[in-house]
Amino acid sequence: MRLGPSRGRLGAADAVTAANAALGFLAAALAPVSPSFAARLVLLGAIADGLDGVVARRYGSTDVGWYLDSLADVASFGVAPAAVVVWSVTADPTALAPLEAVAVFAVPALFVMAAVLRLGFYTAYDDGDGYTEGVPTTLAATVLAAGLLADIPPLALLVAALAFIGLMLTPITYPDLYARDAVAMGAVQALALLFPDVAGGAPTYLLLAFALAYLLLAPRFYWRHPREPATPSGRD
């Protein structure tokens, strides 16, 4: 697809990335109606975020794909989970006391700011060595979405969002997932999305457990050798 004589072509992976951005908008727009449905859309966006890398490796990436990926992630893993947190805490913002309203809206707003900064740093400075500094926005969004679907108390989600503000900007190094592990995580995300209530919500709890395990353990115990390069995909 050509957008104009001075612009390059978009690839199949770019279409998946753009769809991810649309899912982010839908999640944010529908969060006031159903935070749980919006959380499922966030998980669907996480699946799309992994899929665009697979498509890029299979069919090739474009020069613009690197930038589109971060732009889409702002919507799906910055704005959307922030909206989910806000509307999980209250269905009527006008009923909040002034100090409560400040916390309910300020924390998600700062979460979005941190996500934008984190994605900006990633786009500007990532060298493709298979490691990244700070908690990935996809991981933060997955924890918040899975936490809501697992009936974690809304106040705990707000506290988690507050923690992620710092964690996304921390210098702690996280390894990129191997392809096989990314596929496994995508499969668990799909199960939590499609069958959230099976076996008492087991897929949702499994996804939350996997996400928290990577969050807490990956910087020290993931089985990639130190500074071992990842398979390049041109995508976060």
Could you outline the blueprint of secondary structure elements for this entry?
Elements lengths: L11 H19 L4 H25 L5 H25 L8 H28 L5 E3 L3 H13 L4 H14 L5 E3 L3 H16 L7 H20 L15
Antiparallel strand pairs: 1-2
Helix pairs in contact: 1-2, 1-3, 2-3, 2-5, 2-7, 3-4, 3-5, 3-6, 4-6, 5-6, 5-8, 7-8
Task: Provide an overview of this structure.
The chain is mainly α. The chain has one domain (12-221): Up-down Bundle (Four Helix Bundle (Hemerythrin (Met), subunit A)), CATH 1.20.120. It has 8 helices and 2 strands. α5 (137-149) runs antiparallel to α6. The radius of gyration is 17 Å and the shape is globular.
The percentage helix is 55-70%
Strand content: under 5%
* Cα-based radius of gyration, to the nearest Å: 17 Å
Q: Order of helices and strands, N to C? A: HHHHEHHEHH
Number of strands: 2
Largest sheet: 2 strands, antiparallel
Brief digest:
The protein is an all-alpha fold. It has a single domain, classed as Four Helix Bundle (Hemerythrin (Met), subunit A). The protein is built from 8 helices and 2 strands; from the N terminus they run ααααβααβαα.
